[in-house]
Description:
Elements: H1 7-17, E1 26-33, E2 36-43, H2 49-59, H3 73-80, E3 85-89, H4 92-101, E4 104-108, E5 114-118, H5 147-157, E6 163-170, E7 176-183, H6 189-201, H7 211-218, E8 231-233, H8 236-244, E9 248-252, E10 258-261, H9 279-309, H10 311-317, H11 327-350, H12 353-373, H13 379-394, H14 398-435, H15 454-461, H16 466-469
Antiparallel strand pairs: 1-2, 2-4, 3-5, 4-5, 6-7, 7-9, 8-10, 9-10
Helix pairs in contact: 5-8, 9-10, 9-11, 9-13, 9-14, 11-12, 11-13, 11-14
Amino acid sequence: MTLSSVLEENIQYIESHLPVKDSFDLITRNLYLGKTKAFFLGVNGFCKTDILQQIFSDLQNPMYMSDESVEEIQRYMNAKIGYAQTSLSDSWEEIIPSVLSGPAALFVDGFARAVLIDVRTYPTRGIEEPDLEKVTRGSRDGFVETLLFNANLIRRRVRSPRLVFSMHSVGTESKTDVAVSYVDNAVNRDLLEKINSTLDSLRATSLTMGATSLEELLLHKRWWNLLPSIQVTERPDVACSYLMEGHILILVDNSPQVLILPCTIFQFTQNPEDYYKSPSVGTYFRMVRFLCIPVSLLLLPLFLLVTAHFPAAAQAWGLLSDAGLTPQRLFFYVLAVEFLLDLFKYSSSLSSGKFSGSLSIVGGLIIGDIAVTLNWASTDVLFYAAVTLLASLAITDTAFSDAIRLYRILLILATGFGGLPGFLIGAALILLSIITTPTFGGFSYFWPLFPFNGKALGRLLFRSPTFKAQPSNIWDRGKVH
Length: 481
């Protein structure tokens, strides 16, 4: 629907479609620009008051307003408003969402177009290092909940004239701003087209949980696919490194998380800490993290399998100090300790930083000792469970680590109830779940292992010096499906 050239009709439309009389944060003012009537609409807190005050002070100043009336809106806007970015619009479908997202609107009597004045500002927290992606050396900044700030953090690092941020609006009610960022000469055009068409065709009321909601809308996963299919980061340096390798970033307003596409399983084993250390040290710790994945998944189930169902082998290898424990008792011990460790990890992560460290350490010592005394656990099980927990904490991506945890619980249950056949069936189900993990664009989740690309696989497994790590061209991952 288009605007009317009669100001009173436009004001009536605004009052019928916006709660200007009921909502305190909507600002309206009846103004005179010389002898011409005008009407101002904005959102309190989204507009820079000092700049707006200067603009309207000049517009209403008789010495500044040499014209008694506004004759031509385009010329008037270009000549009189010089403090902010401005544009003209004659569509209510564009004006109202724009006002609700920050820019102010000026309606002038006699003109069927409104002046949109972009003097927006958003409340935001300080830029700080994300808790889940800390490094001992390197930058200490991280993405915040304001999309413009996040775009600035990327632009500050990548000053290429080919860096693009294309805007989309998602959510029929929330109208959430979503930006797709890419380097024009490095991006996969087919993947970019698929992302743009998918974003434009999404049918959602709102992105309640920001980037997480958008992630679930972009890729519909089955309940048995536990591993993450889209990498998420809150670090600008990580996002920019993937951007320069031809990946596409998706930024969501009100969310500090940035989605990285396309995605493979090997991306969840990398850490920015590798690149802030020497190549040899970085490669060593990367190998440690690779080792932590099978340790986190298999250590407790294998301990339960050997000690409960092959006691002779367990005694020969010295895996269990108490040879009199029954398989049922061992199964109960493993489940109890698994639950206790998950409880400690979850409660400490949600507790205040002042208490989480002491809570996890003191609570683990006290409850672990009491659990052994009351025969709810054994020291052997506590030891293997503690190693499993440390291996889980060494995995960089929390979503990947949580998926491994659920796989481990499945394997423990299958082993406890079915012995060796149950262990093998559980392992087969986990392998099937991993293999069938979908990815956006239909790329292989195991690239560059399958399809095999030896040079790219070497870059993922080993930390190369910077002069060798810069690719001369973008890796070919195959066709978009």
